[in-house]
Amino acid sequence: MPHDVSLIATIATGFGLAMILGLLASQLRMPPLVGYLLAGVVISPATPGFVGDIGLAGQLAEIGVMLLMFGVGLHFSLRELLAVRRIAVPGAIVQIGVAVVLGMGASLAWGWHWGGALIFGLCLSVASTVVLLRALEAKGLLDSINGRIAVGWLVVEDLVMVLVLVLVPALAGVMSEAGAGQAADTGELWTTMGLTLAKVAAFIAVMLVVGRRVFPKLLWWVARTGSRELFTLCVVSAAIGVAFGAALLFDVSFALGAFFAGMMMRESEYSHRAADESLPLRDAFAVLFFVSVGMLFDPAVLWQQPLKVLAVVAIIMVGKTLAAIGLVLLFRYPLNTALTIGASLAQIGEFSFILAGMGVALQLMPAEGQSLVLAGALISIAANSALFAAIGPLQQWLRQRSELVRRFEQRDDPLAELPMSTDPKQLTGQVVLVGYGSVGRRMAVELAAQQIPFVVAEQNRELVEDLRRQNIPAVCGDAAEPEVLIQAHIARAAMLVITPPDSMRARRMVETAWALNPKVEVLLRTLSEDEAVLLRQEGLGMVFLGKEELSRSMSTQVLDRMRPHHGTVNLRS
After folding, report:
1. What residues contact residue 201 under an 8 Å CB cut-off, 6+ apart?
2. What pLDDT was estimated at residue 450?
3. In what order do the strands lie in the sheet with 474-476?
4. Alpha-carbon gap, residue 469 to 36, rounded angstroms
5. How much is the pLDDT for 143?
6. Do 133 and 151 form a contact (C-beta atoms < 8 A)?
7. Where are the alpha helices (DSSP H) in 207-227?
8. CA-based end-to-end distance of the chain
9. Torsion-angle region of residue 571: left (phi > 0), alpha (psi -120 to 50) or beta?
10. Do residues 490 and 511 touch, judged by C-beta distance below 8 A?
11. Which pTM value belongs to this model?
12. CA 200 to CA 165: how far, in whole Å?
């Protein structure tokens, strides 16, 4: 047997425990992430039994951070962010500010130095990308307006944290307690900040100029070989290589380097394949990252400092959530959207761990702070699924018992009604188009080209505002609510087209439409074969399934091309 197997022992034990505890967490309807963190606690020095190699685990965690941030970059869409920028950008910034103030206030009351208090507040301000995306996917909300706002909000938080990770090491001397008694040299401070930002700017410029051209071509060249393992190797080596090169040449964090590598990969037509091919490796190292984070957690903080843990959880799950809900309602979005965004952001994750580790390493924050952050993360992540499950019942409870909520939802909203200037000719025999995503947008272009009148019903206020600026009739709201279809004049419409693939809401829309206009034709879209069968059996209209339509279009094209040469061609589906 080899003399030193600490790496293998740490990986084997970490993966094995993570699988068992992750499965247990899943059975208890909690995110598996909770199990991964607990696996780290089990093999940490703070608990009896086997102790993993923290040094090796830390290096494995760095790789996990690189691949996690690479995945975030691959999914970062500037266009999707711009679509919800008016709520996501100010909302994320204000919510970060609220969490930082609450976190600083609590830690300063505990007697911490202001530098550590600031890091602590920042740790509590940013939600977990992994937890949020998986929660939205589980609820089928990722492609909804609520999901797009939540993801856009999180992207803004991530970008702020990337900037924080760059600036904290440069400002560590000023923020540390050791430097508190010394007068800060303003000139030296600005020089340090300027040099740091210049290096970051240089790195970003290189990535935008060189990376956008090199990475897509590199993926194309490797894809031409037809070798799957070479393609995977290309993707992973680019992620880790850029992260390491960024740290070596530009003093940029591994996280920022990997994030930009992912962003540049997104420019390639093979970006989806790159995401799919790297996903198993990203998942594996992400597990090791969370295990290594759990190894740093001291469970004793739960019974030694219960009030502090309670304060941290309250800031994460109450302070942040109420701030997010209030901001969304302030932007005149419905209560359901506000509650969904609030639940999505009521947890903390990977950026919090990275920042907490950096704060302890730079001696800005006490080790107790890292344990409090981890305790808050464990509890908030474990409770996140329950928060999502409570959205519907809470919404009904508030509507039934709160006159203020009912008045708030019934307030006059100029976007919830068609403008008085709308041409009456467009409101008779028109198409009511529900949803203005990629499918709805293409359909609107075709209808406009054929001069067929249509009205758009869309939940995204910014899209509705843009449509009205183009003189396209549009109403803002959830078309599953009767008021929205009434405002779209469904009673006089010729056709209702439902583009979001949400069968539950689609049923309510069809019921409302046929109650007001029994003769209206209905077209629905779904992504599931089982749902397509059920919708057709219920007779809810003409159902379109993506795979079927693609197959039909390709078959038609083949038949049209082949008939002149071969007569009748039989194609098997």
Report:
1. none
2. 87
3. 474-476, 454-458, 431-434, 495-498, 521-526, 542-545
4. 49
5. 64
6. yes
7. 212-224
8. 56
9. beta
10. no
11. 0.69
12. 11
- The pLDDT tens digits for 204-251 are 788 777 777 787 788 788 888 878 888 888 888 888 888 888 777 777
Largest CA distance in the chain: 91
Q: Which pLDDT does position 7 carry in this prediction?
A: 75
476 vs 411: CA distance, rounded Å:
13
Q: Which tokens belong to 347?
A: 């947890």
- For tokens 């060189």, what's the residue? 210
Q: Which residues of the chain are under the pLDDT cut of 70?
A: 1-5, 52, 72, 75-83, 130, 134, 137-138, 140-144, 177-189, 192, 252-253, 267-272, 278, 403-417, 419-421, 563-573
Q: Residue with structure tokens 């209030």?
A: 326
How confident is the model at residue 307, as a pLDDT?
92
> Tokens 């071969």 sit at which residue?
566
CA-CA distance, 246 to 80, in Å (whole number)?
Answer: 27
Phi (first) and psi of residue 95, to 5 degrees: -65, -40
Give long-range contacts, CB 8 A cutoff, 24+ apart: 159-164.
160/92, 160/93, 160/96, 160/126, 161/122, 161/126, 161/351, 161/355, 162/253, 162/255, 162/256, 162/259, 164/122, 164/355
d(CA 396, CA 391): 9
Structure tokens at 84: 């919800």
What are 434's strand-pairing partners? Answer: 457, 498
